[in-house]
Amino acid sequence: MVNKKETNLEGVKAMARTLLYTDINRTAYSPMIVQHPFTNTGFTMVMRNGIPQCIDITADSNALHEWRQMVCEQINSSKSAFEIYMMTNKPYGMTFLKYAAHHLSKKDFSQILADAWIRSENPNDDPNLPQAKLLSLFQSAEPRHLMSQDELNTLNDLDTTVTVYRGVTSFKATPRNSRLAP
Q1: Hey, where are the domains in the chain?
Q2: CA–CA distance, 47 with 53 (Å, rounded to integer)
Q3: SS3 30
Q4: What CA–CA distances, in Å, run from 171 to 71, 167, 168, 174, 175?
Q5: Distance CA 75, CA 12 (A)
Q6: How distant, in Å, are the alpha carbons of 134, 177, 179 from that of 164?
Q7: pTM for the structure as a whole
Q8: I need a labelling partner for 147 at 20 to 30 A (CA). Which of 110, 137, 138, 179 fits?
Q9: Is the pLDDT score of 20 beyond 90?
Q10: In this predicted model, what pLDDT tens digit does every residue of 33-65 receive, in sequence order?
Q11: Which of 14, 19, 61, 15 is nearest to 42 (CA)?
């Protein structure tokens, strides 16, 4: 899936700008809480004539345009794919990765995947990425870039066979033994 040696940063930026122009999804708590790849609130600050002002991007199309222009400038001035990824609203990290993957080097892809997996509240229930797709993302990743050096050293020091125990509530508990083989 991901075999690029170099990230196509311009391709990542173009994809991010496309996500930026998706609709803002209102919630029961809007404008305070919204869902969008680049924000989780309808209120934001912009500079007008050198003075910071709070705007509601859900109520004013001019404010929305102004906010999008500001975020677009941040995307355009980014020096790395990871920097753009970090601008995304947490629930959209895996979605960003899904659409940016074909522009990313294997290293960048793997590092963003590792971070997105941790940042996501519940990646196994992401409607944009079925579990089979998540599995394929991890299979495409470079294991050494999914971990810190300490984690990689610990992994390399493990025995060939490792017994894994998983804690579950009594509601879902079923007796079974699992062995993880290489």
Answers
A1: 9-148
A2: 6
A3: coil
A4: 46, 12, 8, 9, 12
A5: 9
A6: 21, 9, 7
A7: 0.81
A8: 179
A9: yes
A10: 999 999 999 999 988 899 999 999 999 999 999
A11: 61
